[in-house]
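Internal ticket - ligand job 402, glyoxylic acid:
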Amino acid sequence: MTFSSMWRDLAPVGRDASSGGYRRFAWTREDATLREWFAAEAQRRGLDLTVDRVGNQWAWWGDPDAALAAGRPGVVTGSHLDSVPDGGAYDGPLGVVSALAAVDALRDSGFEPDRPIGVVNFVDEEGARFGVACAGSRVLTGAMTADRARSLTDGDGISMAEALSAAGRDPHELGPDSETVRRIGTFVELHVEQGRHLSTLETDTPVAVGSDIWPHGRWRIRTLGEANHAGTTRLEDRDDAMLGFAAAVIAARRAAETHGCVATLGKVAVAPGGVNAIASEVTGWLDARGADEDAVRRVVADVTEVVEEFGGLVVEDSWTGSTPFDPGLARRIATRLGGIPVIGTGAGHDAGILANAGVPTAMLFVRNPTGISHSPEEFATSQDCLVGVDALATVLTDLAGE
Ligand code: GLV
Ligand code: MN
Ligand code: MN
Ligand code: MN
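stdout (structure tokens):
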């Protein structure tokens, strides 16, 4: 299977015909199709497929346990296949397909790894369904407890435990899996760039190495009011939950500007949800990020103050502090790839969760000419994708060949 034939296989899965965007959420039918695809690709290559306690899929070339016993833990690459609502084709799948293509390239070249090479498909990276991003790697490494994960609910009130059962998995199996984590000597995630750094360089530079991930988190904002008739309730008699929420939206924008961060309210649920009914309850999700942890905290504090003035509540859903990738590894990769740039990112990744769990971790970014991500406009040329595969193959040769 070539890169382009794998890409063609994945193209229709979960694609919305009208927007062109993808809806691939954890433990849904689309997710099951993607997981079957991954398992079939592993089998086709004779890789050993294992599924950890969380449901992340690992395809191994070589025996990771024998290697670990010999003090030579494996080199793992890969990413995720799930998406945000109406996401692009590249965020996630590019890393998985490139990993398989890089393994093919190494095998075709006759390369014999001294360390096993693993390809991973992390489950539920975007947290689009249950709200917590990188759920698969968080539970794997113990950064989120299994109890909390099981109790997360989706927009229809279905818990992750129920979704796991419906997908044929035992929710009690969910939990940290140190045996799986120990097998990862080094992790390298290739990803589409989610900004314009590479496309605005004067030199033709299709690939960069990651330096760090900005501190980022998600908070749930809830404001309460009283449902009533939109036509007959006088303004002075209203208790409108939307007012406090609207104030929070403006406060988030102002605070982000003041503290040099970014803040987004991109998802909101209004009850009862009628055009002609005053809102009794608004729940919205604040996503805040920035280069400086204290500054991000200040944004959340400013928003909280406003929400509390309206009698509302702000609750933290997830928080990931400043996450530097292994600097020695980044330098080594940048040098090996001919002095390519080393850039930071405001996007979260499973690579960040692994880095925080102490795994030496690196990322490769492939140029995105639109600079847009989490949207159908996300893009990378096929030529750049193949440069990415080559770069990843070179990195794997270096890391698994010693
Ligand atoms: C995930 O892609 C995130 O950064 O929100
Ligand atoms: Mn994403
Ligand atoms: Mn991603
Ligand atoms: Mn991400």
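Auto-summary: Residues 3-213+324-400 form a domain with the Aminopeptidase fold (CATH 3.40.630.10). Residues 127 and 133 are 4 Å apart (CA to CA).
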